[in-house]
Write a structure and sequence with these properties.
Layout lengths: L1 H13 L7 E9 L6 E10 L2 E7 L8 E4 L4 E4 L1 E6 L28 H4 L5 H7 L3 E6 L8 E9 L7 E11 L2 H5 L5 H16 L3 H4 L9 H12 L3 E6 L2 H13 L4 E6 L7 H7 L3 E3 L18 H8 L3 E3 L14 H10 L4 H6 L3 H6 L17 E4 L10 E6 L2 E2 L5 H8 L6
């Protein structure tokens, strides 16, 4: 009997509750819309969606009411670049699907096919208020880092909600090192790869093959070229960014976003005019390589003031499967260095959703939006703040992870 009860309890923990009608009442509601901040505001969730955001909403019959007095109510955070769900132990081999090497695939590598909603980092990330993430492999041997996916932190089998959402491309120092060590060969190689994709399947079916890409990779890149898909480009220096802007001008049908952009502040106006977003790390200020010699802490503030769409994530090379939750802390650091609080919070919620094409349903508290809602015990950009409730698509999530269970199990004060 005891074993049966334990099994039932385990099943209940593993299976999220169904979406319900919930009224989050009388909190400090950060809408990320023109409505701004609603003091004493309410959020009504019905069947996984937000149906009303206002003050003094009457609770519908049968609704569960959560008292948010003295608390903050926000959209769930969106990790703009992460390996969460791709690796259980990043430094090991078999459990690590974030590294792609070998001659068979690079551009065709599909992060969504490797995402595991059961890895411990998913729950760890979720209880810190992060409800969605963009994931991609971190290591390949060519210009292309593979196809990224958009995932939920709900821990369910259907957590991948947008497969092949973007294509990762290395067009800075790292990319140059993969095509002979020089930018003189980097851009011609990239253009040749795009030609290979445009000519697929003709040359490949005739046996000629491509100049740069094999058949699998050519097919993958072609999907992004033809569908106006997003190329997420790792690039850092102002010179490289100017080259990307010129390339975009010559190929207006291609869509780019930058990951890195340590020197993007130098070309902020040009980036705004070209409508190229930047996913940046506001703590990237060390000249640890030539392409980051002019890195500075107020990069995010300068870009935002110029009208560049920004999001905040760890810099390339430091993205980790366990630390997607640090995006909120990074946003807090950006505030310290001149970015407004509203812009910093948007850069870890609305900004990533907009960049990855899902801003019509995520990143705001507004009628019709997916009910990714977090209730916090204070300012979510403060490191001592924690969620008291997390909803993903209207389903309240358990604030439990392997870490919290180990903490409770071995707590010496526990009776």
């Amino acid at each position: 009997m005891r074993l049966l009860l334990a099994s039932i309890a385990a099943f209940a923990f593993a299976t999220p509750a169904f979406a319900e009608t919930v009224l989050i009442d009388n909190g400090r509601v950060i809408t990320n819309t023109s409505a701004g901040v609603l003091e004493g505001g309410d959020v009504l969730i019905v069947d996984g969606r937000i149906t009303q955001v206002a003050q003094n909403i009457a609770a519908p019959r049968g609704a569960r009411v959560i008292d948010a007095r003295g608390k903050w109510v926000t959209p769930g955070a969106f990790a703009a670049m992460s390996e969460v769900g791709l690796s259980e132990i990043s430094g090991s081999g078999a459990p690590n699907d974030a590294n792609v090497s070998g001659p068979i695939v690079s551009a065709a590598a599909d992060a969504g096919a490797a995402f595991d909603p059961d890895v411990t980092a998913v729950a760890i990330t979720r209880i810190e208020g992060v409800t969605r993430a963009a994931i991609a492999p971190s290591q390949t041997d060519t210009l292309f880092g593979g196809q990224g996916a958009l995932v939920s932190m709900g821990g369910t089998p259907d957590s991948v909600f947008r497969q092949r959402a973007f294509m990762v491309v290395e067009l800075g120092e790292t990319g140059a090192s993969r095509v002979g060590g020089s930018r003189a060969s980097l851009w011609p190689a990239f253009e040749a790869a795009l030609r290979d994709a445009a000519e697929y399947p003709g040359r490949y079916r005739s046996g000629q093959g491509g100049t740069v890409l094999n058949e699998l990779d050519a097919a993958a890149v072609q999907r992004f070229v033809r569908s106006n898909g997003l190329f997420l480009v790792h690039i850092e220096s102002a010179t490289d960014i100017r080259r990307l802007i010129a390339f975009k001008r010559a190929h207006p049908n291609l869509r780019f976003a930058i990951h890195g952009g340590a020197e993007a502040w130098q070309v902020a106006d040009d980036l705004a005019a070209a409508r190229i977003p930047v996913i940046l790390d506001p703590l990237s200020d060390l000249p640890d390589r030539f392409e980051r010699l002019s890195a500075r802490l107020d990069n995010a503030a300068i870009l935002q003031r110029a009208g560049v769409q920004i999001a905040i994530a760890p810099q390339p090379g430091t993205v980790d499967a366990q630390q997607a939750r640090l995006a909120l802390q990074l946003a807090g650091n950006a505030v310290t260095n001149g970015l407004s609080w509203d812009a910093a919070f948007a850069a870890v919620t609305k900004g990533p959703a907009d960049i990855f094409g899902v801003g019509g349903s995520l990143g705001q508290l507004a009628r019709g939006y997916t009910a990714d809602v977090v209730v916090w015990d204070g300012d979510p950009l403060e490191v001592q703040t924690a969620p008291t409730a997390v909803f993903i698509a209207g389903v309240e999530q358990p604030l439990v992870s392997r870490q919290t269970r180990l903490r409770d199990r071995y707590n010496p004060t526990r009776r």
